Amino acid sequence: MTRRTPPSPGERTPGERTLGDLLTHTARTLRRRSMSALEPWGISPHEARTLRVVGRHEPTRLGAVAEHLRIAPRSVTGVVDALEDRGLVAREPDPDDRRATRVSLTPTGRTALGELDVARAADHEAFFARLGERDRATLARILGRLLEDD
Amino acid sequence: MTRRTPPSPGERTPGERTLGDLLTHTARTLRRRSMSALEPWGISPHEARTLRVVGRHEPTRLGAVAEHLRIAPRSVTGVVDALEDRGLVAREPDPDDRRATRVSLTPTGRTALGELDVARAADHEAFFARLGERDRATLARILGRLLEDD
DNA sequence: TATTGTTATACTCTATAACTATA
DNA sequence: TATAGTTATAGAGTATAACAATA
User: Could B18 and A124 be called an inter-chain contact, meaning their C-beta atoms sit closer than 8 Å?
Assistant: First the structure.
């Protein structure tokens, strides 16, 4: 039987959409916004995210980047390649383990990261503006909860 | 409001992650879960979502499906093709407008949708379980707010 | 002229598996 | 044997632009 339960106070979601749909659509809307916001730099949201992770942990192993981004090692190769092609990050051999590779920001990458952070902050500000401080904090708490034992 | 400090570039949320990162990661986690949950049916989350939209509005024009899913018309063609190939939906000419095409569920599609709804409900229940009724409602409210004038 | 949907094309993000070079 | 990263390959999801048929 199709789900046609009358709107119960706790469960009703606006627009006949499930929590999952809402989450999916919100994330996609954000991604689209970010793509536009990042257009001047010719960089994708995923690449920008990776640049931030590298900047926060440099010099860092590729495997560590994968963990921070929660993506497969294979996927790191691609995005780091893209960033390296643009001269934003550089690979170097890990002195402690010759199997491993470390990545760091280049001077260009550091400059770009600074600019991107400003742009991202502005864009997030615009997107999350309507929420107000309190709802933002609540949203962060709830999402953090959902990711807890990731 | 006394709180006027603007979120500085690089605003951080718990775990060194921005609200945007949290949203992105949560949505991706859910998508991965859904992919696994839907595996027995050989159907993707996107396809399942489309099937639900069709089921809720059938018979409905392809353009309307695009609006409900908030995707480009071009993208509807692909996903409806996939569903039609599996015999879950059927295209038919719109009697009122010969440019338009309508889609409806097939009997097979209707059965599948019922099963999928149960599976989805179970999976969402598992994913959102740790939140509790109140946080779920709050999350729905906040996300709904972010999508408001979409 | 405007709208409906399709074809053609391409980009972003992600995964698994097999391989290499180390450890 | 196990780990770090790569190559090879694949698939999901989305977009723009040009077009044909119809309004």
Answer: yes
Burial of A91 (0-12, 13-18, 19+ CB in 10 A): middle
Where do we find the tokens 């599609």? B109
Chain B residue closest in CA terms to A22: B143
- pTM of the shown model: 0.86
Which residues in A lie closer than 8 A to residue B54 (C-beta atoms)? none
Do residue B19 and residue A140 have CB atoms under 8 angstroms apart? yes
Q: Give the C-alpha separation, A133 to B6, whole Å.
A: 10
Give the DSSP letter string of B39-90: GGGT--HHHHHHHHHHHHH-SEEHHHHHHHHT--HHHHHHHHHHHHHTTSEE
Cβ A48 vs Cβ A79: under 8 Å:
no
Q: B48-107: per-residue pLDDT in tens?
A: 999 999 999 999 999 999 999 999 999 999 999 999 999 999 999 999 999 999 999 999
- For residue B50, how far is the Cα from the chain centroid? 8
The CA distance from B38 to A4, in Å, is: 22
Structure tokens at A67: 């963990």
DSSP-assigned letters across all residues of A18-59: -HHHHHHHHHHHHHHHHHHHHGGGT--HHHHHHHHHHHHH-S
Could you tell me if A94 and A61 are in contact, meaning their C-beta atoms sit under 8 angstroms apart? Answer: yes
A window 71-100: Cβ near strand D (< 7 A): 73-74, 76-77, 80, 91, 94, 97, 99-100
**What is the interface size between A and B, counted as CB pairs within 8 Å?**
155
**Rounded to whole angstroms, how far apart are CA atoms A36 and B22?**
20
